[in-house]
Amino acid sequence: MLLHQFTDMATRIEDRNSGRLIQPFTLALLISVCLTGCQKSSEYPSRPITLVCPWAVGGGTDRVSRQIAVFLESELGTPVNVVNATGGQGVTGHSRGLRAKPDGYTISMMTLELSMLHWRNLTDLTWEDAAPLMSLNEDPAALFVKADSEFQTVKDLEAAIEDRPEELKASGTAALAAWHLALAGWLISLDQNPTDVIWMPSQGSAPSLQELMTGDLDLVCCSLPEAKSLLVSGDIRCLGVMADDRQASDDFKDYPTLKEQGSDWALTGWRGLGIAKDTPPEIQEKLVTVLKRIVGGKARVNGESFPEFMDRQGFDHTSRPTTEFADFLKRNDEMFGVILNRPEFQSVQSGPVGPNVFPAIAGGMFGLSLIIVLAGASRRPTASITGIAAANNIVDAATPHAIFLSGCAVAAVIFHMLAADTLGFVTTSAIILFLTSKLLGERLLTSAIVAIVASVGIYQLFSGLLRVPLPIGSFLLF
Known about the structure:
17 helices
């Protein structure tokens, strides 16, 4: 409605000027006012940053991501928005974070799954596609049951699994992701089949724990901090921790390890920040410098440091600097290469649907829809032309024009996909809006004003008010 009113106003302005352009000074003033705040700065960061979390809202990775984002925002002086890119058993989030444009405006919260995914042929993405910045914490897996569960000890659970193979249900994350491998590895250490407990894939620990509470699951495997609130409330119990030693935290020091109960199995999950490997060194250095202040406790937000937050939440806050983190990632990758190539793990299937199936279906449906639109346009009979197009003598025959407009719509989508990162959202959208307006028969000046004001207005709404980062472009255009 507002856009329509503005179009009418712009048309009246042009009519009053008898079709002449507004004086250059006035037009330049209009553009400069509209583009205020869209200027691209050479200093990093000059716009909002996205931190991609590969797991669901409410889980441990999400909580650590959101807290580190708060500290990064405070230290860098720009909004840092957390995006939960779930799906593909971790492929979606890691790919979105590490394969983003290497400009420093997309940071990835990397997790243990990065060391596993390529060994399972789910992606060709590895830790070598990242520029590691710093690790943030390491938490061992643990086994949890509901407070009123029949299993009082790990030995009770082991006996039930042996007596009732493929009957108990467990979850904690996606199939063959970190906590699934933790459980499967424990079963193998007991000389049992890793499929003796049915794994129910989920998007993280938070939804899994909720299913445990409703009775849909018999046990959950995840880290202690992820289950802390339910442990404190007494709704669930911890049967054993998959670590060499008991946790130092006062919150978790009373929970026994599996090693104390006869198993040698241990697996620790980790979280760390990375960025696209081709990101300029000066940007990487700035981020590392800021992270050193944060993990070292020198930065404070609302009177609390990051290590204090981690302690309060029960998270370990072991951190590894860039070089040590890279070596750690390499060792993890090699370890899981050995584990996932074992016959026992090869038999644990994640299901017949791979992560590329749904994008392929979506692409196929888009192509089919395009064919249907073009086919329908080609069969449309010539009809009387009404409206703006008729008034401006845009078409001579309906059939070729309908096909042309359908092609333009598709071309506009493709152009925006290809050009937005380079030209920026404002320029790309302005070009599309201007050409669309002209195709609909609007006058030159009206089309130009609407294109400029609408594209800049949308940019300011999302980037400024809603804090959703939009492409600003590679060239110093604004």
